[in-house]
Amino acid sequence: MTEVRVPTLGESVTEATVATWFKKPGDTVAQDEMLCELETDKVTVEVPSPMAGTLSEIVAGEGDTVGVDALLAQISEGGEAAAPTPKADAPKAELAPAPAAPSGGDEMDIMVPTLGESVTEATVSTWFKKPGEAFEADEMLCELETDKVSVEVPAPAAGVMTKLLADEGATVEAGGKLAVMSTDASAAPAPAAAPAAAATATSTGKDVEDAPSAKKLMAENNLSSGDVQGTGKDGRVMKEDVLKTLAAPAPATVQAAPPRAPVAADQASREERVKMTRLRQTIARRLKDSQNTAAMLTTYNEVDMTEVMALRNEYKDLFLKKHGVKLGFMSFFTKACIHALNEVPEVNAEIDGTDVVYKNYVNMGIAAGTPTGLVVPVINDADQMSFAGIEKAIGAMGAKARDGKLSMAEMQGGTFTISNGGVYGSLMSSPILNPPQSGILGMHKIQDRPMAMNGEVVIRPMMYLALSYDHRIVDGKGAVTFLVRVKEALEDPRRLLMDL
Questions:
Q1: Is 46 within 8 Å of 34 (Cβ atoms)?
Q2: Could you read off the pLDDT of 363-405 as tens digits, one per residue?
C-alpha cells in the first residue's frame, strides 16, 4: 500500500478542505493522475497520484478539513485492491462504494440531525440531490439553516434518493424526517437521473462537479454555475470564482425607454421580494429585543494608536516566526478590554430577573460579518490566554464563520463583545448590545487627525471608541472608567504586560 498525503500548502497555511475526489475506491489510477482537489483560504491545490495502481481507500472525504501531511487515501498495486474496478460504462449509482444491501434494497429514512442546544427547528435551505439521483455514503444531501448556523445532512449510506418529504423553504423539527432513500442502486429511475444530468451539462456547458463551498455560496446568492467563470480543473467553479463574481460591478444595460407607466406600478416592477433567511430573522429579532429590554446607552472616547502600531510593526515578524500567526490589533483590544473588565466588573455581568450575575471570567465575543449575516463566535476564558493564543483563536473562529461551520456551542456563553466596524470604513457608530450581555465595545477606522499635544499640533493615528452598555446595571461612571482604562492600555501597551 502507498499512502497519499496532504502536500505542503504554502507559507503559514496549515490546513485545507477536501473539495472534490476525481476517483473512487476501486478506480485504477495512473502515476501523476489527479486524485483530488484541496481548497485553502487562498488557492486550490491538486493532489496527484504518487504511483500507478488502484485507489483502495479514501480516508478524508469531501468537505473534511485536513492538515499538512495528513493521510488522504491509500493506493495499492494492481491486484491488491479489495474493490474491483468499475466498468467505464457503469451508471453513476454503481460507482459509489456501498455496503452490501439485501436483495431489492432497503428503504431508509433520512432524518434531521441534532441541531444544537435549545434549537428545535430549522429551515431546509438547499437540496443537493433529487429523487432518482444516486449518492455515496456521507455525501452531502441537503443543507439546513437554523437561527445561527448552517447544518449539512450527510447520506447515512450509499444509495438512491427515493422521495423528498420536506421541500426547500420548509420548516422541520429536530429528529423529523427529511426524505426517504433506498440502499438498492438499481432503484434509481433512469429517466429521472438522465434529464437532470443533461440539463446540468446544457446549462453549464461542462460535465464537472463544482466545489462544495462554491455551490453553497452560489445557492446563498441565487447564482448558477453558468453565471460564474470557473478557474478550477476542467472549468470547475471554485469558491474564489464566486467571490469574484459577487464583487464585480453589475454590467450596465442600455434599453429603449418603455412608455412611461404610473410611478407606483413602474417602481413595483423594479422591486424584488425575497424571504428573509432564518439567520437574518433572528438577527433582527434579537437586536430589536435588545433595544426593547435593556436601558441601552452609548459613551464615546478616542484612542491614539501610535504606540500599538509601533509595537506591532516592531515585533510582527518575530511574532509570526515564533507563533505561526500574525499579530493583529484585535489581540491588543481584547487584552485591553479584559484589563478594564477586571476594574469595572459590572460591564462583564448580566441581569437575571432581580439578580445581577457577576462573571469571574471573560468569554470574549468577536463579532464577524459573513455573507449570510452577523455572527458572534466566543473565545472562552480569553482572560487566561496570551496574545498568541488570542490571535490563534480569533483566526480559527473567523475561518469557521466565513465557511458557515460555527456550531451553536461556539456562539454561546459570551460575557462581553467587541465589534470592529473599522474594517468596513466606519468612522463612528453605536453598537447594539448582544443580550444578555451588558456591554459591547465598538472599534472604528484608524484615521490621521491633527491633535494638540504639549502646545503643538501634531498628526496622530486616532480611533473613536464606543461602549454601549445596559444602564440598568452599569452607571455612567463605570462606563466612562471602562473606556478610559481601555484608552490608557492602548496608548501605553506596556501597562498590559505589567497589569497596571
A1: yes
A2: 999 988 777 777 889 999 999 999 999 999 998 988 888 887 8
Rounded to an integer, the average pLDDT of 167-195 is 70
CA torsion angle 75 40 366 294 (round to 10): -90
Burial class (CB in 10 A: 0-12, 13-18, 19+), 143: buried
Q: Cα separation of 37 and 4, whole Å? A: 13
Please tell me whether residues 62 and 119 are part of one structural domain.
no
Are 161 and 208 contained in the same domain?
Answer: yes
**Residues 209, 336 within the same domain:** no
Give the catalytic positions in this structure: 471, 475
Q: What angle do CA 253, 256, 260 make, to 5 degrees?
A: 115
Coil, strand or helix: which one is 35?
strand
Total number of domains constituting the chain: 3
Residue 363: which of 378, 376, 349, 375 has the closest Cα? 378
Does residue 134 sit within a domain?
yes
State which of 188, 213, 245 marks the end of a domain. 245
What's the grid cell of residue 363? 468569554
- Tell whether 143 and 188 lie within a shared domain: yes
Within this chain, do residues 237 and 297 fall inside the same structural domain, yes or no? no
Query: How many residues are recorded in the chain?
Result: 500
Q: Are residues 315 and 188 in the same domain?
A: no
**What residues make up the domain containing 77?**
2-85
Cis peptide before 377 (omega within 30 of 0): no
What tens digit of pLDDT does each residue of 34-83 get?
888 887 766 677 888 888 888 888 988 888 888 888 888 988 886 444 44
Whether the CB-CB separation of 161 and 141 falls below 8 Å is answered with: yes
Calculate the alpha carbon distances from 51 to 23, 81, 150, 241, 407 in Å.
14, 14, 39, 31, 39
Domain membership of residue 432 (yes or no) is: yes
Query: Is position 261 within any domain?
Result: no
**Can you read off the three cell numbers belonging to residue 298?**
452609548
